[in-house]
Amino acid sequence: MHDEPIDPFNGDPADPAAGLDDPGDDATPDPLTDVERQDVLEDLADLEIYQALLAPIGVRGLVIECEDCREPHYFDWDLLRGNLRHLLNSGRPRVHEPAYDPDPDHYVTWDYARGYADGVHDTLTEGTEDEPGTPTATD
Q1: Residue 26: which pLDDT band, with cuts at 50, 70 and 90?
Q2: How many helices (H) and strands (E) in the chain?
Q3: Is the dihedral of CA 102, 71, 57, 49 positive or negative?
Q4: Is pLDDT at 86 greater than 60 in this prediction?
């Protein structure tokens, strides 16, 4: 079982991305800082929550506005998880391409997923604010 998607061009001499993952000896990437590493770990934890909440209602993954090409990129849950793990392990993001003909109705933004998770959390904790021993905003 693989944690990451299998490269369909693995071993292909005509691989269009050949050499992109091997920048050479003179271009060693800087490792992630402790703060960056913690951010990626938090993103992985958030992703698990988002998938647990959103996949059952038909959401296939997240859409991210690419800073490089200014295009939306659609990632299913497993691909995004694999990309984050790759970043965590290698210290650099993967080369990416836009998904082939994704249905935007099946993807949400990180902000939407975060808001949805916050809403579910707030709904589940409603009513506990008035219980004895629970701090309130005025405490």
Answers
A1: very low
A2: 3, 3
A3: positive
A4: yes
Identify which of 44, 120, 23 has the alpha carbon closest to the alpha carbon of residue 89. 44
C-beta of residue 84 within 8 angstroms of C-beta of residue 43:
yes
SS3 20: coil
Q: In one letter, which amino acid is 125?
A: T
Query: DSSP string spanning 64-82?
Result: EE-TTT--EEEEEHHHHHH
Q: What is the DSSP letter of 4?
A: S
The reported pTM is 0.68
Long-range residue pairs from 72-75, CB within 8 A, at least 24 positions apart, any chain: 72/98, 72/104, 73/98, 73/99, 74/98, 74/99, 74/102, 74/104, 74/107, 75/99, 75/107
Helix (H, G, I), strand (E, B) or coil at 102: coil
Place of tokens 């079982």: 1
- Could you tell me if 86 and 94 are in contact, meaning their C-beta atoms sit under 8 angstroms apart? yes
